[in-house]
Amino acid sequence: MVTVDYYVALSAILFTIGALGVLSRRNPLIIFMSIELMLNAANLAFVAFASVYESFNGQIFVFFVIAVAAAEVAVGLALIVEIFKSKKNINIDDMNSLKG
Amino acid sequence: MTDLIVFLVLSLVAIASALGMLFSRNAVYSALFLVLNFVVVAVFYLLLGAPFIAMAQITVYAGAIMVLFLFVIMLLGAENLPPSEVLPWQRPLAILLSTILAVESIYLVFARARSGTSIISPDASVNSIENVREMAMTLFNQYLLPFEVTSILLLVAMVGAIVLNKREKAG
Q: A4-94 domain in CATH 1.10.287.3510?
């Protein structure tokens, strides 16, 4: 039998892999993808609990999280493109000043 | 028993694709591994009886967001960034901290497990029409204001992306 704990444990593992990506990789695009992976892990836990408690609130929250993630990716990738145009590279160590 | 096997195989694919995303040298491979991970999570949503969320996941995440990622990676030519000077303690410290995070969260999940109450019904009836109707009723009655705020948020993000990449007029 698959219980909700299995799904939450899988969600925790995926979240940890995303956190490891944010901590250890230097390419800002990979860091962005790791953040998406963490959002996805949280969504999986939401849907698992929504399925257990037979409530639609969890699924609605996942819907909103997907919308917010889409907005975040659009703005974040625009920022990365802009930084690349002004600095000619996207090394994460060079992004230490707010001045363009 | 079969649902346990299905769960284990799918979670193996999910974890392997997440690790592949993490350890690929080429950013394009990372993006494609992440697409695989999103599709596997969409299959989990189907197993959990949430077909609408599964379709939204595939359309928005695996479709729109990852295509945007691939587009930017190829636009910037950032497939293989030259390695910068790496802090010597960064990699081991990151692995140590995330191992602690994983062990602790999984321990908490199983330490608080209430056996018997939390079993997912194996015939979580995947009736798409019913699911979509119920979700729409909840979304447009109970969560109408957040839904409208989401549309404003998407509008702001669109305007922000356009303004950030607008060509500056001289003078």
A: yes
